[in-house]
Design brief:
Rossmann fold; alpha/beta; 13% strand; 17 helices; single chain
């Protein structure tokens, strides 16, 4: 256990607070502005990039001595307690809905392995899984975790996924699967049981330890928020259409960027590897592919976005994008290849640097040297919160509905109501109707 002592538990893991958000592609900036905290921004940014990559057919980069093709498909697991605001990632699912309406893309996480394989095969190996309820994944995958683990690992490398039964044998030759999952540590461990498992280094992991303030959990999205998501979804669909009908486009880092990437990973993380052990070396090496994929997604999103000044409000960007259909065309050089800008490379590298630190913490979590704990909430606190959310006069059905929205059973809420009346906090007006006493 001594090899973990040199890791600083206070290391800043936030991503967006270190980014120049004005340097991000204009399509995603209005949606990103809907996040209410730094942790929410980090979760939303990575989810939006992952979802966007799922909508980019005919796009690839080459990596390694064999110049193997990699596609813009990321697989992401966000690990956190039940109160950290992971629901913000559902905006990424909203983002792909316009594409999904035109061409089936989304694959339910609530599916048996045979159903998952069949759906992926029917979609020619392309798909996007999005589940913000980790229990759904854990429950349905429990009987076939090994199959899912192997399939997702192969999909991350675009290796053939095969399924053999007595009467048939089928192969998905070139899977291009993107995925956003959120869940607790135990749900994460169910999918990645050990750091030696080959999937660990292929699955991007985001660790969230912040707890979302209770006052922010019932904020309803306004019309401008819905418009921002709908606009971005439509923009992404236009991009998808252009890529779908285009010839394959190769994305490339410049020679200087490629040299910088290799040198950076070789020199920046030897100490971290020495602390965690050689098993972590594969994470650092594979981060090069992840960084190039992120740079590819950023570059393509930017190639179909007009540039705006840093001072321009996200809402005005959304409005102008929505009305300016002519701005959506892949740059002319894409016919011979798409070259990464220094701006997008710098953003991708910074994101990768932070993700390595998240992966280091995930490494420790899997090894059992640290644990994420939700704050202990006393029943009295929950009781007081529930009472404060009820109107001055409320019916029994109102009490039950509000309690269930907080995960409190009808029986418990009824018992608490009896206690409130016994302590003079609530008065019964008539059958099924109650009044709070100031």
């Amino acid at each position: 256990m001594n090899k973990y002592q040199n890791l600083n538990p206070e290391t800043d893991l936030h991503i967006c607070s270190h980014l120049d958000e004005a340097a991000l592609p204009a399509i995603i900036r209005p949606v990103l502005s809907l996040a209410q905290s730094e942790s929410e921004k980090d979760m939303l940014l990575m989810s939006l990039l992952t979802a966007s990559g799922a909508c980019m057919p005919n796009l690839y980069c080459r990596y390694g001595i064999a110049a193997k093709r990699y596609y813009p498909n990321l697989q992401l697991f966000i690990v956190g307690s039940a109160a950290c605001g992971k629901g913000i990632t559902n905006l990424a699912l909203d983002l792909v809905q316009r594409v999904h309406q035109a061409m089936p893309l989304v694959i339910p996480g609530d599916a048996t392995y045979p159903a998952f394989y069949r759906t992926l095969a029917q979609q020619n190996g392309r798909g996007y899984i999005h589940e913000s309820e980790g229990s759904v994944i854990t429950d349905i995958w429990r009987s076939s975790t090994a199959n899912y683990n192997t399939a997702l690992r192969k999909a991350a490398e675009h290796e053939p996924i095969s399924r053999a039964r007595c009467k048939d044998h089928s192969v998905i030759e070139n899977p291009q699967l993107s995925m956003v999952l959120t869940g607790t540590l135990s749900q994460y461990r169910a999918l990645v049981p050990s750091v030696e498992n080959g999937y660990f280094s292929r699955l991007l992991t985001l660790i969230v330890q912040d707890i979302k303030p209770f006052s922010e959990r019932y904020v309803q999205p306004g019309e401008s928020s819905r418009q921002a998501i709908q606009t971005a979804s439509e923009q992404l669909y236009r991009l998808y259409e252009q890529l779908f009908f285009s010839h394959p486009i190769e994305f490339r880092l410049t020679p200087d960027q490629r040299t910088r990437l290799g040198h950076h990973l070789e020199t920046a993380y030897p100490t971290l590897i020495s602390i965690l052990g050689e098993d972590f070396h594969s994470v650092v090496l594979r981060m090069a592919v992840h960084i190039e994929r992120i740079a590819m997604i950023l570059t393509v999103l930017r190639s179909c976005s007009p540039r705006y000044s840093a001072e321009q409000e996200p809402s005005s960007i959304s409005s102008e994008l929505d009305s300016d259909t002519s701005s959506f065309s892949i740059a002319p050089e894409s016919h011979s290849g798409l070259v990464c800008s220094d701006e997008d490379y710098a953003t991708a590298e910074l994101i990768g640097n932070k993700l390595i630190l998240h992966m280091a913490q995930a490494y420790q979590l899997i090894q059992g040297t640290e644990k994420i704990e939700a704050p202990k909430v006393k029943p009295l606190d929950q009781k007081a919160i529930l009472l404060s959310l009820l109107p001055a006069e409320f019916e029994s059905k109102t009490l039950v509905a509000e309690a269930q929205s907080q995960g409190i059973s009808p029986r418990t809420s009824a018992r608490w109501n009896e206690e409130w009346m016994a302590h003079g906090l609530v008065q019964k007006i008539r059958y099924g109707v109650y009044k709070k006493i100031a």
